[in-house]
């Protein structure tokens, strides 16, 4: 009897062990996925073309000396601001001063000759009045006087030219601006008119970009619409600046076969850009229908169709939404149908989601943290975008 009881207890223990070994542990709760989202906006689906551009001054001049000589001093450096009338460089003035002294001496000699010719003419006129000489002799003295007067005027003009030449040894900025280039260094012997430095004058700024031959007419037509041309300065966020097409080159560049175009930012935007800054010129073309724009990372292929994940902002869950594509534009696609403005679409993490899954916006505070007092919609303004 005791043996039977022992065997029964052993059997029950074995059954309990086998039952515990066969039972599966409860699955852990599924983690809440962090996703990036964007909000769809009306008009985002309009196709656009981007061009690389550069900010330049409307007027840029090359300053040079009017006379030749040896450059002995350059008073400004690259990037310096100059004011109107400020000296920026200087030539060796020795030869110019010697030329000025020579002109002054020639003027003094011409004035002395004129005084002698005037005295002779007065004496010979008195002699003719007294009948001691003929009219022909007086006419010769009058001709000599006129020649001396002409020589005096010539020497006077030459002295003025040499005085100007001496003053040209100092190069002066004609207007206020910024030095954008240096073409000569002290010690160089320059010919008259050789550029010394480049000066970008203060005033309007142009956005300069190159347009392919087959896009010139498209640019002309589209830029005529208000707000079609926008400029995005590099490194200043995505805030576009409105621009107006100012001119397009009449002939293509012989090397690149592109046409140089210039857009005007307007006086209000000049303070927001810097000379030489890189920018993007965005030409928005007329929209076709109610298309919306999405990044390629937002799409997922499922059972031969394209879908996106929409976020329900109230429950913070996702659902799949089939979409119809209308084409591609760079790293973005244009959605022809299936979406509405105001919806929130997941743009990162689409391949690990399932319908009804809980999500949180990337960068938002975790649930239960002290900083999570704000509603989920508040955190999406920065992190979800």
Automatic annotation (TrEMBL):
<feature type="coiled-coil region">
    <location>
        <begin position="100"/>
        <end position="165"/>
    </location>
</feature>
<dbReference type="Pfam" id="PF25967">
    <property type="entry name" value="RND-MFP_C"/>
</dbReference>
<dbReference type="InterPro" id="IPR058624">
    <property type="entry name" value="MdtA-like_HH"/>
</dbReference>
<dbReference type="GO" id="GO:1990281">
    <property type="term" value="C:efflux pump complex"/>
</dbReference>
<feature type="signal peptide">
    <location>
        <begin position="1"/>
        <end position="20"/>
    </location>
</feature>
<feature type="domain" description="Multidrug resistance protein MdtA-like C-terminal permuted SH3">
    <location>
        <begin position="292"/>
        <end position="350"/>
    </location>
</feature>
<comment type="similarity">
    <text>Belongs to the membrane fusion protein (MFP) (TC 8.A.1) family.</text>
</comment>
<dbReference type="GO" id="GO:0015562">
    <property type="term" value="F:efflux transmembrane transporter activity"/>
</dbReference>
<protein>
    <submittedName>
        <fullName>Putative Co/Zn/Cd efflux system membrane fusion protein</fullName>
    </submittedName>
</protein>
<dbReference type="InterPro" id="IPR058627">
    <property type="entry name" value="MdtA-like_C"/>
</dbReference>
<dbReference type="Pfam" id="PF25876">
    <property type="entry name" value="HH_MFP_RND"/>
</dbReference>
<keyword id="KW-0175">Coiled coil</keyword>
<keyword id="KW-0732">Signal</keyword>
<dbReference type="InterPro" id="IPR006143">
    <property type="entry name" value="RND_pump_MFP"/>
</dbReference>
<feature type="domain" description="Multidrug resistance protein MdtA-like alpha-helical hairpin">
    <location>
        <begin position="101"/>
        <end position="158"/>
    </location>
</feature>
